[in-house]
């Protein structure tokens, strides 16, 4: 099954000319699928996974435009009993990174860092 990044559907002008534009309903379904994936990472695993890397080129779409979260290179695991974790360095891409990862004035990092992006 072929997977194409969401970034390609958003920014590739060749796809726009070939009538492969995503309609609002499809974009809504993709956003909902990404949110369900994040819920699974935050609540559905024995160990919580903070992803830190939600951006269009890390979302792959299958033939039915069902999203798959990819590239877990910046992810961090932590125990489910912990709600806030401390980190020694920021993770993520500027423009998608949550403020608490950059600014030391905030308490710490939580699942909300993924939701921000």
Automatic annotation (TrEMBL):
Principal EC category: transferase
Catalytic reactions on record: L-seryl-[protein] + ATP = O-phospho-L-seryl-[protein] + ADP + H(+); L-threonyl-[protein] + ATP = O-phospho-L-threonyl-[protein] + ADP + H(+)
Signal peptide residue numbers: none
Entry membrane topology: Single-pass type I membrane protein
Family annotation (InterPro entries): Kinase-like_dom_sf, LRK10/LRL21-25-like, Prot_kinase_dom
Enzyme Commission number(s): 2.7.11.1
Main location group: membrane
TM stretches of this protein: none
Cellular location(s): Membrane
Keywords: ATP-binding, Glycoprotein, Kinase, Membrane, Nucleotide-binding, Serine/threonine-protein kinase, Signal, Transferase, Transmembrane, Transmembrane helix
Record flagged with keyword Transmembrane helix: yes
GO molecular function, one term: ATP binding
Protein name according to UniProt: non-specific serine/threonine protein kinase
Organism: Gossypium davidsonii
